[in-house]
Amino acid sequence: VQLQESGPGLVKPSQTLSLTCTVSGASITTNYYYWNWIRQPPGKGLEWMGAITYSGSTYYSPSLKSRTSISRDNVENTVYLQMNSLKPEDTAVYYCHANGPAVGYWGQGTQVTVSS
User: Fold this and answer.
1) Which residues, listed in sequence order, are joined to residue 73 by a DSSP beta bridge?
2) Are 116 and 13 in contact (CB under 8 A)?
3) Exposed (0-12), middle (13-18) or buried (19+): which is 99, by Cβ within 10 Å?
4) Mean pLDDT by 10 residues, the chain (116 residues)
5) Cα separations (Å) of 29 from 13, 25, 63, 80, 85?
6) Residue 3's CB: how many other CB atoms inside 10 A?
């Protein structure tokens, strides 16, 4: 399974971030797979942001829920992340991650910098 994140590298404060995770090698509707967004700010640890499941259910980190939306396109086999009201502290490498029964896959990550 391969995951490829894409999106703008630079976003201004208060704007909305839109990231795409293009999946190949497996369908995003494959049973029991969860498709996660995870980020890592500079000098900090990984932060789970949320997930969309194989059935389309979504789950969010409580601290980010009010600003985050995860969706998918089954035809394009793509998962999306939207985050609004961006702040400089949202600067991070954003990763797409898939976990299924006893397996996990990571994208290479995409750098997002929030700055005016």
Assistant:
1) 78
2) yes
3) middle
4) 96 97 96 97 98 97 98 98 97 97 94 97
5) 34, 12, 27, 14, 30
6) 22
